[in-house]
């Protein structure tokens, strides 16, 4: 794997994950209480012995830069690195990144400096565990120009992905990005060709791209330089290359989830609490997911009832109930709180005792969730201050709302409290 260079696409403005991306890049969004989205592809690379890793981004990249710089430091005796490449204006190209392919095109001059054979193109907002060595080995064995990692897909979600048709040898014959209507019907295939049994093939009649590619070095240069007007891999580069290059499909057989929307992000996080076996596990010792070391104290639970939940380190919980939820680092829950079906991201720091107990400001609300509050089906971003006797339960079953001045949004019926928001005592949603 020394001759492979990984390029992780940090995504655009992350509008589908707004307001979680209001003050941070999409790959920097917290995950599972203590990780960030970017930790998934970077950890997969490290576990696959791919140690040369670039991350391309252009929106709100400060927290992402800080996280990567503090987390991934390789020995000075190796060529390993994890480095952020932000969009920049140059005399040759005065524009920002116009798409995934354009982002890679603008940094080809840098990638060419490395003596490698393949480029591994990854996405920064997926949850999965993958050994890229097997993926790259298949690419080399089939002498492919481009290899796409694929999963079988049901009709309900198929319109959100690039779909393809393949022959018996796995070669891609046709590719269509997010088709609808008649175009969607034309992409339906007998997925038994992937090895699915008849029942599963009936339920999953499409082959979807995961947005993960391996390119031969020369082929990547060619497809990006011959058509500079093509700015996106899925919409333009891959469909065009399907007709005159050897495109191969690699079937990924494990759990994979695109968590680019609030609903998908919420469901993927809470699925981690599922018993007896969650769809994705952070407890695999052979392929761990890495993140920043924080040296926090153990969590402290005082007369609490916690069921089907994950509690990160450094939390303080007092006489409360937590069910089917995830509490992030340094979360604080006061007496008689109830948190159900929720993701609490925690805090970046501990608030001093004197500040928490200050009475000088009548609107002062400590970081955490105050006494006698009820939180259901919500995402509480970092450093949020939830007062006492607050009820965040979406009592009117609203699906979409934007109350930024009040410190919250509602997306797909899920209450999202903004980072650093203050929700006063007695507030009800």
3D architecture notes:
With 429 residues, the chain is of the alpha/beta class. The protein has two domains: 4-273, Spore Coat Polysaccharide Biosynthesis Protein SpsA, Chain A; 300-423, 3 Solenoid (UDP N-Acetylglucosamine Acyltransferase, domain 1), CATH 2.160.10.10. Helix content is 20%, strand content 28%. Strands 1, 4, 5, 6, 8, 9, 10, 11 and 12 form a nine-stranded mixed beta sheet that branches. 44% of the residues are buried. The model has no long low-confidence stretch (mean pLDDT 92).
Summarize the structure.
By secondary structure, the chain is α/β, with parallel strands linked by helices. 20% of the residues lie in helices and 28% in strands. The protein is globular.
User: What Rg do the Cα atoms give?
Assistant: 23 Å
Average pLDDT, to the nearest integer? 92
Outline the biggest β-sheet: 9 strands, mixed
Please identify which CATH superfamily of the largest domain we are dealing with.
Spore Coat Polysaccharide Biosynthesis Protein SpsA, Chain A
**What is the second-level CATH architecture of the largest domain?**
Alpha-Beta Complex
Number of domains: 2
Helix content: 10-25%
Number of helices: 12
Quote the beta fraction.
25-35%
What fold name stands as the CATH topology of the largest domain? Spore Coat Polysaccharide Biosynthesis Protein SpsA, Chain A
């Amino acid at each position: 794997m020394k001759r492979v260079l990984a390029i992780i696409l940090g995504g655009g403005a992350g509008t589908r994950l707004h307001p979680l991306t209001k003050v941070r890049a999409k790959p920097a969004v917290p995950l599972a209480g203590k990780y960030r989205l970017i930790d998934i592809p970077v950890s997969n690379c490290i576990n696959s012995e791919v140690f040369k890793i670039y991350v391309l981004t252009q929106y709100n990249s400060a927290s992402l830069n800080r996280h990567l710089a503090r987390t991934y430091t390789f020995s000075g005796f190796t060529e390993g690195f994890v480095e952020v490449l932000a969009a920049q204006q140059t005399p040759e190209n005065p524009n920002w990144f116009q798409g995934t392919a354009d982002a890679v095109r603008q940094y080809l001059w840098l990638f060419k400096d490395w003596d490698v054979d393949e480029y591994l193109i990854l996405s920064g907002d997926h949850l999965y565990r993958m050994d890229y060595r097997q993926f790259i080995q298949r690419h080399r064995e089939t002498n492919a120009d481009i290899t796409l990692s694929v999963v079988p897909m049901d009709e309900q979600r198929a319109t959100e992905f690039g779909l393809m048709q393949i022959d018996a040898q796995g070669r891609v014959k046709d590719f269509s990005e997010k088709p609808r209507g008649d175009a969607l019907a034309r992409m339906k295939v007998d997925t038994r060709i992937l090895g699915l049994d008849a029942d599963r093939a009936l339920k999953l009649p499409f082959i979807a791209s995961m947005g993960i590619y391996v390119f031969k070095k020369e082929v990547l240069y060619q497809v990006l330089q011959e058509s500079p007007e093509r700015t996106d891999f899925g919409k333009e580069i891959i469909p065009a290359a399907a007709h005159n290059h050897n495109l191969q499909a690699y079937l990924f057989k494990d759990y994979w989830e695109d968590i680019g929307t609030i609903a998908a992000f919420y469901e993927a996080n809470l699925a981690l609490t599922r018993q007896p076996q969650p769809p994705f596990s952070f407890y695999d010792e052979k392929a761990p997911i890495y993140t920043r070391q924080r040296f926090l104290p153990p969590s402290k639970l005082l007369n609490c009832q916690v069921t089907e939940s994950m509690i990160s380190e450094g939390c303080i919980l007092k006489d409360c109930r937590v069910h089917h939820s995830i509490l992030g680092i340094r979360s604080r829950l006061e007496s008689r709180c109830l948190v159900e079906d929720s993701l609490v991201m925690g805090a970046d720091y501990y608030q001093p005792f004197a500040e928490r107990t200050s009475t000088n400001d009548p609107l002062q609300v400590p970081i955490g969730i105050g006494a006698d509050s009820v939180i259901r089906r919500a995402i509480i971003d970092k450093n949020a201050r939830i007062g006492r006797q607050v009820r965040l339960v979406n009592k009117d079953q609203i699906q979409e709302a934007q109350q930024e001045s009040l410190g919250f949004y509602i997306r797909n019926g899920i209450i999202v409290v903004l980072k650093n928001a203050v929700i006063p005592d007695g507030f009800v949603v």
